[in-house]
């Protein structure tokens, strides 16, 4: 038993699903089977000397809930293990994770090079807030290595990308971009929200940081907000943790407990999500009202072969362009009955949204056009309902 209540077992030969259930199991003095929640703001010490030793880092132990909590630590250890990393720092949301990363790694005068297919809130964070700190923001075409090469400056310190991208599911060559970043003395961060470590482990492809919105597939049922940063013991375990300890964008113990339970079923859920998404994408591609389907599992996807090489699956995000622009897209969305109209994703329930007016509505029309986000684009996060029911629902909506 470790000092924070997690069982230390040699699990070096365990498979992914087993690790998601058994790694860093959290047990209290009652030896409860389900992990405990520690809803406390602070922790006590047996003596003043022990308090001093723990505060100084000479002895392990919990201090204050802003940066040390057994439930949160169990989630961090398990996610780090699944991603193949050494350390993880959990945050209050996915956006908090991105903010924590950037404020830890970059300073005034540095250059941040990012892909142009990012989530709208991430673009707003970089352009409207990070840029105010004197950090220069540059953009590259996610899937074009030449564009990344051209985007480098002498002061480029960090590269940031999502793969697959939101909402067009474009794929970046992580290994090639990581090699390029390191050759220029920069670091690479990869948002792995869409695939999770079930289907992709960016650290093994050369990335330095992995970012998660645990709100999405890790939770899997749309209940809690949370985020995480995974990487090595120095950059994440000390540097990122140091920012967390001081600034405090921390994850709550209850949410950490929900995410721990989510990791237990992550592998089986992601495979079921993908199976539904593949069949729906194939069906959509045959519909005359649909101009184009964006899903890496289709052979028509521009980076289909790359996705097969660097991923173990294609995920559950399917986007498609309907003929008739915004009017047709909105009408289709409104006619669905099984699809929840919400911008969230990664839920057991299928969700549907119009990116141009929701997730990417706050960025300029020019930026949306450059990213390929048109008025007729619809994004599905395919859930775990019966595949036949989902297709029937979409078929009815398409006929409308």
SSE layout and pairing:
Layout: H1 16-22, H2 48-56, H3 70-83, E1 87-91, H4 94-105, E2 111-115, H5 120-130, E3 136-140, H6 145-151, E4 156-162, H7 174-183, E5 187-191, H8 196-199, E6 209-213, E7 227-231, H9 235-247, H10 253-284, E8 290-294, H11 304-310, E9 317-322, H12 325-335, E10 340-341, E11 351-353, H13 365-371, E12 377-381, H14 387-399
Parallel strand pairs: 2-3, 2-4, 4-5, 5-6, 10-11
Antiparallel strand pairs: 1-7, 6-7, 8-9, 9-12, 11-12
Helix pairs in contact: 1-3, 1-10, 3-10, 4-5, 4-9, 12-14
General description of the model:
The protein has helices at about 15-20, 50-55, 70-85, 95-105, 120-130, 145-150, 175-185, 195-200, 235-245, 255-285, 305-310, 325-335, 365-370, 385-400, and strands at about 85-90, 110-115, 135-140, 155-160, 185-190, 210-215, 225-230, 290-295, 315-320, 340, 350-355, 375-380. The protein has 14 helices and 12 strands. It has a 7-stranded mixed sheet with strand order 1-7-6-5-4-2-3, sandwiched between helices. It has a 5-stranded mixed sheet with strand order 8-9-12-11-10. It is of the alpha/beta class and about 400 residues long. Helices cover about 40% and strands about 15% of the residues. The chain has 2 domains: about 15-260, Aspartate Aminotransferase, domain 2, CATH 3.40.640; about 265-400, Aspartate Aminotransferase, domain 1. The longest helix is centred in the C-terminal third of the chain and has 32 residues, at about 255-285. β5, α8 (about 195-200) and β6 (about 210-215) form a beta-alpha-beta unit.
